[in-house]
Amino acid sequence: MYVCICHDVKDTQIKTALAAGVCCMKGLQDTLSVGTCCGCCIPMVQDLLDEHSQNAVAIDVMAS
């Protein structure tokens, strides 16, 4: 699904960047240019960031 229409970025590209170590909005903006034009995608990008962070915390807790 498209997240950032302005820069033709899909959710899978954002998830791939997060899995590769990009960990913040600034990093995603630098890497994929999401949220750097009209800004309409920022809430959805933030949701994907939050989801990734929650999953990372859950994995850390399970590993402990």
Task: Describe this protein's structure.
The protein has 64 residues and is mostly helical. It has a single domain (2-61), classed as BFD-like [2Fe-2S]-binding domain (Arc Repressor Mutant, subunit A), CATH 1.10.10. The chain is built from three helices and two strands, in the order ββααα. Strands 1-2 form a two-stranded antiparallel sheet. A hairpin with a 4-residue loop joins strand 1 (2-4) and strand 2. Helix 1 runs parallel beside helix 3 (42-63). The protein is elongated, with a radius of gyration of 12 Å. The chain starts with a strand and ends with a helix.
User: N-to-C SSE series?
Assistant: EEHHH
Mean pLDDT figure: 93
Identify the CATH class. Mainly Alpha
Low-confidence runs of at least 5 consecutive residues: none
Distance between the termini: 34 Å
Report on the biggest sheet: 2 strands, antiparallel
Derived from helix and strand composition plus strand pairing, the structural class reads mainly alpha
Number of helices, where a helix is a run of at least 4 consecutive DSSP H or I residues = 3
- From the alpha-carbon coordinates, what is the Rg to the nearest angstrom? 12 Å
**DSSP strand content:** 5-15%
> What's the β-strand tally?
2
> Can you tell me the CATH topology?
Arc Repressor Mutant, subunit A
| Main β-sheet, spatial strand arrangement | 1-2
What would you say the CATH architecture is?
Answer: Orthogonal Bundle
When the domains are counted, the total is 1
What is the CATH superfamily classification? BFD-like [2Fe-2S]-binding domain
The backbone outline, from C-alpha atoms, is elongated
Pfam families: Fer2_BFD (PF04324)
Organism: Moraxella porci DSM 25326
Cofactor: [2Fe-2S] cluster
GO molecular function: 2 iron, 2 sulfur cluster binding; metal ion binding
